[in-house]
């Protein structure tokens, strides 16, 4: 199994209707493909973790990249895993914080997105990632 984390930029302001549509499709397809994960939408950014069998995650990500609702996806991490960290959701959702100016570094961008996250396990995952990335 692998876990893939990417960040992208929304083409339009996040709206409840667009997010609902994305989550509905994601939950249906990911359940069928044995993919789990989490989507964070904040400011004009999406941050998403996908995990599951390598082929399933890759084909899901390839399809997501074609989606006109966002642009410029950047893979932040792609790693082999033995266990899922987001196994309880076919696609969980978390509202993220505001977008910083593009001049802000990726670690600050991620910190701003994660700011509203209260769940300690989720925070720990992303903070670990930011630390690793900054190192
Ligand atoms: C930010 C973002 C995240 C998405 N995440 C997923 C996902 O986890 N799984 C998925 O199947 N589709 C996801 N989608 C939707 C896909 O891009 C695509 O529209 C959908 O998979 C097509 O499904 P269909 O072929 O069954 O109509 C996402 C789209 C966006 C913009």
Automatic annotation (TrEMBL):
SUPFAM superfamilies: Acylphosphatase/BLUF domain-like
Domain BLUF: 1-92
Matches recorded under Pfam families: BLUF (PF04940)
SMART domains: BLUF
GO molecular function terms attached to this record: blue light photoreceptor activity; FAD binding
InterPro entries noted in UniProt: Acylphosphatase-like_dom_sf, BLUF_domain
Domain of life where this protein originates: Bacteria
Gene3D superfamilies from the UniProt entry: 3.30.70.100
Record-given protein name: BLUF domain-containing protein
Species annotation: Sphingomonas panacisoli
Taxonomic path: Bacteria, Pseudomonadati, Pseudomonadota, Alphaproteobacteria, Sphingomonadales
């Amino acid at each position: 199994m692998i876990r893939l984390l990417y960040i992208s930029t929304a083409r339009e302001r996040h709206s409840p209707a667009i997010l609902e549509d994305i989550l509905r499709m994601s939950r249906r397809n990911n359940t069928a493909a044995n993919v789990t994960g989490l989507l964070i939408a904040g400011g004009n950014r999406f941050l998403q973790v996908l995990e599951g069998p390598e082929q399933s995650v890759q084909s899901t990500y390839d399809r997501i990249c074609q989606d006109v609702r966002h642009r410029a996806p950047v893979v932040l991490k792609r790693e082999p895993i033995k266990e899922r960290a987001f196994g309880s959701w076919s696609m969980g959702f978390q509202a993220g914080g505001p977008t910083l100016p593009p001049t802000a570094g990726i670690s600050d961008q991620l910190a701003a997105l994660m700011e509203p996250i209260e769940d300690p396990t989720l925070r720990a995952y992303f903070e670990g990632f930011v630390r690793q990335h900054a190192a």
